[in-house]
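Page 42, continued from yesterday. The earlier attempt failed because a stray header line got pasted into the input along with the sequence. Redoing it now with the clean sequence only.
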Amino acid sequence: MYSVVHFELPFQDRDRAVDFYTKAFGWKANKLGPEMGNYVTVETGETDPETLVPSQPGAINGGMFEKTKDAQYPSVVVAVDDIRQAMKEVEEAGGQVIGGVTPGEPDDIPGVGMYCAISDTEGNRIGMLQPAPMPS
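This time it went through. Structure tokens are written below.
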């Protein structure tokens, strides 16, 4: 069984969104540059500085992305052991693999892992992540 490990929220105005979630919920935001699609990572609670994993059991951190025609809604990210196998299982279950930058293919996010978006049978867009190995 795979778990939800991350959430994502779209923004139209990155600074406005960061300001809102910082003030409303006390989240810590890290704005990434254009090489990372201006993505924003958010910490929703105490987080281990080395692993970036929340310290509180059951808690998850998230991120924010620029809203586009094809990506307009909040989503969750599910951790999987093998992203290519999980992509096959999504299709076999009736879903659609959207992919990453290249349609139908996962993205390699340095230090994070392999990521791709999918659409379930109800049209919900969610992410799948094969996490990169943790440093030992």
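Notes: The mean pLDDT is 91.
Reminder to self: strip header lines before submitting.
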